[in-house]
Design goal:
The chain is of the alpha+beta class and 190 residues long. It has one helix at 2-44; strands at residues 45-47, 57-59, 72-75, 77-80, 89-92, 98-99, 105-113, 117-123, 128-135, 137-138, 145-146, 153-154, 165-172, 175-177, 188-189. The strands form 3 sheets. Strands 4, 5, 7, 8, 9, 11, 13 and 14 form an 8-stranded antiparallel beta sheet that branches. A 5-stranded antiparallel beta sheet has the order 10-12-6-3-15, with no helix packed on it.
């Protein structure tokens, strides 16, 4: 009889432990969701002093986070289009031409690569990421929130490049897509 009672007691203790463990996991997950939601709300509407110091209020809704803006601020020429072997678009411009985000987002990668030269990647928090390569200079830091009027880098000729240009990629759910699907590339921007 004592063995049966000890077995039942052990089962009860195990059940209580499992229930406690389950609730503690749910609590941690809920706390993480609340923290992320707060960060996204802070990102949605904020007053930020941009590189030019205008400090204007920028409302960032879902439509602001879809890559739609030409990422070169000034005159440029499309020097190479998207293809099976070239998974981006090249925008030739004078060295030092301003590079701006095509949509609001957060910088998730930056560095130097033998092919891409100075580059950065922005996650737009909706399945889209954009890559900006061959920059002469990159101004942003990892985990920095960027807005559509921020200057994030300057056009350059770094990495495997023959002339100054911005190599620009849009990645949708892990797949590189033709940027011309979302952005109308004219010969001049602003």
């Amino acid at each position: 009889m004592k063995v049966i009672l000890a077995g039942l007691l052990l089962i009860i203790v195990l059940l209580i432990g499992a229930v406690y463990f389950q609730f503690s996991l749910v609590g941690k997950q809920k706390a993480e969701i609340v923290q992320l939601t707060g960060e996204l709300e802070n990102f949605k509407v904020s007053t930020v002093s941009n590189k030019s110091g205008s400090g204007k209020k920028r409302y960032n809704d879902y439509s602001d986070s879809i890559p739609r803006q030409v990422p070169v601020y000034g005159k440029y020429v499309v020097s190479q289009r998207f293809s099976d072997i070239h998974k981006g678009i090249d925008l030739a411009a004078v060295t030092g031409t301003k590079i701006v985000p095509s949509a609001v987002g957060v910088v998730v990668d930056k560095g130097y690569d033998e092919i891409y030269g100075n580059y950065l990647v922005i996650d737009h928090l909706n399945g889209y990421k954009t890559k900006y390569a061959h920059a002469s200079k990159v101004f942003v830091k990892l985990k920095e929130y960027v807005y559509i009027d921020d200057v994030i880098a300057l056009v350059g000729n770094t990495g495997k490049s023959t002339d100054p240009h911005l190599h620009f990629e849009i990645i949708e759910s892990g797949e590189k897509i033709d940027p011309a699907i979302l952005i109308k590339f004219d010969k001049q921007n602003r």
